């Protein structure tokens, strides 16, 4: 898969990010924190806007507040409806997003 870097606008700069380095994005009100393997970037875009930027990549919106890179998922806890990422972070999957998440994961297995 060829990776195209994306430009993420911040308040006073533009950060160039390789999508394969993005672990997750989480909503913080009207803004978004993007956690990469190297840093956390504060973005002046909503989680919905970030989702549309990442839609053709290996990302899944698992919750109203979270988008995760499926390549960083290390475990899916069926009984708790939760994922564990490689960085040991635990994220609940919302009931509304569960079906789409399962379909995406099954396609990756």
Polypeptide structure, described:
With 109 residues, the protein is an alpha+beta fold. The chain has one domain (6-108): LytTr DNA-binding domain (OB fold (Dihydrolipoamide Acetyltransferase, E2P)), CATH 2.40.50. It has 2 helices and 10 strands; from the N terminus they run E-E-E-E-E-H-E-E-E-E-E-H. The strands form 3 sheets. It has a 5-stranded antiparallel β-sheet with strand order 5-4-3-7-6. It has a 3-stranded antiparallel β-sheet with strand order 8-9-10, with no helix packed on it. The chain is globular. The two termini are 17 Å apart.
Low-confidence stretches: none
Please bin the fraction of helical residues. 10-25%
**Category by helix and strand content:** alpha+beta
* Widest beta sheet: strand line-up: 5-4-3-7-6
The geometry reads as globular
CATH homology superfamily: LytTr DNA-binding domain
Number of domains: 1
Strand content: 35-45%
Tally of contiguous helical segments? 2
In total, the number of strands is 10
CATH topology term: OB fold (Dihydrolipoamide Acetyltransferase, E2P)
Mean pLDDT: 90
**What are the secondary-structure elements, in order, as H or E?**
EEEEEHEEEEEH
Any descriptors?
109 residues; alpha+beta; OB fold (Dihydrolipoamide Acetyltransferase, E2P); five-stranded antiparallel beta sheet; three-stranded antiparallel beta sheet
Short description:
20% of the residues lie in helices and 42% in strands. The protein is an alpha+beta fold.
């Amino acid at each position: 898969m060829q990776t195209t870097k994306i430009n993420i606008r911040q308040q006073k700069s533009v950060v160039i990010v390789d999508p394969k380095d993005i672990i997750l994005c989480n909503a913080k009100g009207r803004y978004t924190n993007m956690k990469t393997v190297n840093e956390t970037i504060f973005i002046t875009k909503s989680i919905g806007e970030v989702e549309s930027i990442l839609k053709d990549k290996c990302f899944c919106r698992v919750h109203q507040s979270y988008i995760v890179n499926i390549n960083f998922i290390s475990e899916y806890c069926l009984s708790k409806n939760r994922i564990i990422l490689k960085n040991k972070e635990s994220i609940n999957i919302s009931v509304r997003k569960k079906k789409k998440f399962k379909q995406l994961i099954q396609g990756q297995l």
